[in-house]
């Protein structure tokens, strides 16, 4: 389910967090679903258990998951808008990078918007909402 | 975090060849240290000095606050070692080798040794000489871990092994970390393995450390893969 790229300069714990948010946002993981134990996920991904522990700790601080001693970790019962805030937090740097690239070619705001919109319309919409404008 | 091991001004020469030159490192308990270095640059020499197999020419090693010397043997019960070229008594059986080692380690865990054999699919009755290279590595690891070491030194144990075996090996190290939080010094030139588990990165070049930093900081600073970082730092040196 979760995959990480250990050669990437994005810290592994960040990748694990992002992937978990993605799984929750896309409904693959639902509220109250159990997550793999730190030990199992570390073995599966072949990464240091402390890395997984850190990801889980921060996800818990962000309120996305809960950990109970002896019972493991599971997805918190959060409202959808909260999850969307997390999703947006991860997408913002991706979009910023795309905008920065476009600016390197000296594209103005209008041009970037037009380009973005045309690509967006071409891409299939797999979400459950917002398919009306396609 | 407590300091487990402190190496100060360690030096070692072989004839005119200065292999280690004022080498210094402080090791905190419970962390995974990566020691990157090119072949022939002193990783194995360092490992052998730490294991008390060869003496250093100068410098001090302090383990849990106590100075240890070449003549000391007590500390060896707390150190585990998986070398690149393990030496085995080829005629011994797998179980025989385990039993032989059990004598030297007060914390030897028979149950753990048995379950590791099973997990590695090592037949206790098979002779060591009939094992493949990958199986020998797994056996070496089983021996090292059954001794419940506080400090585990891995000296390029996975070179020459196929990818699935290397992954198996790493998984076992990870299980060990999950279960016991053993302090590990992983000396290697195989950056891909290291990249997955290292917490503190050190690079040995020219006989001493040219880098000693938290891996995350290094990655954030260089913004590239460990392979590129290593090559760029060593090429400059």
List the helices and strands and how they pair.
The complex is a heterodimer of chains A (134) and B (237).
Chain A (H helix, E strand, L loop, with lengths): L11 H14 L12 H8 L3 H13 L3 E4 L3 E4 L4 H25 L4 H14 L12
Antiparallel strand pairs in A: 1-2
Chain B lengths: L2 E12 L2 E12 L3 E6 L5 H8 L7 E6 L2 E3 L10 E4 L11 H9 L7 H10 L13 H14 L4 E5 L7 H18 L2 E6 L2 H7 L2 E6 L2 E7 H8 L3 H11 L1
Parallel strand pairs in B: 3-8, 3-9, 6-7, 7-8
Antiparallel strand pairs in B: 1-2, 1-4, 4-5, 9-10
Helix pairs in contact in B: 2-4, 3-4, 4-5
CATH level-1 class of the largest domain in chain A: Mainly Alpha
C-alpha Rg of chain B (nearest Å):
18 Å
Largest sheet, strands/sense/barrel of chain A = 2 strands, antiparallel
Radius of gyration of chain A (Å)? 18 Å
Question: Can you count the beta strands of chain A?
Answer: 2
Spans of chain B of at least 5 consecutive residues whose pLDDT stays below 50 are none
| Biggest beta sheet summary of chain B | 6 strands, mixed
Main β-sheet, spatial strand arrangement of chain A: 1-2
Number of helices of chain B: 8
Helix-strand pattern of chain B:
EEEHEEEHHHEHEHEEHH
**Low-confidence parts of chain A, pLDDT < 50 over ≥5 residues?**
130-134
Form type of chain B: globular
H-E string of chain A: HHHEEHH
Oligomeric state: heterodimer
How would you explain this protein's 3D organization?
The complex is a heterodimer of chains A (134) and B (237). Chain A is built from 5 helices and 2 strands, in the order αααββαα. Chain A is mostly helical. Helix content of chain A is 55%, strand content 6%. The two termini of chain A are 29 Å apart. Chain A folds into 2 domains: 12-75, Winged helix-like DNA-binding domain superfamily/Winged helix DNA-binding domain (Arc Repressor Mutant, subunit A), CATH 1.10.10; 80-131. Chain B has 237 residues and is α/β, with parallel strands linked by helices. Chain B has a single domain (3-91, 151-236), classed as P-loop containing nucleotide triphosphate hydrolases (Rossmann fold, 3-Layer(aba) Sandwich), CATH 3.40.50. Chain B is built from 8 helices and 10 strands. In chain B, the strands form 2 sheets. A 6-stranded mixed sheet of chain B has the order 6-7-8-3-9-10, sandwiched between helices. In chain B, strand 7 (151-155), helix 5 (163-180) and strand 8 (183-188) form a beta-alpha-beta unit. In chain B, helix 3 (110-119) runs antiparallel to helix 4. Chain B is globular and about 50 Å long. Classes of the chains: A mainly alpha (134), B alpha/beta (237). The interface between A and B is medium-sized, with 15 and 24 residues.
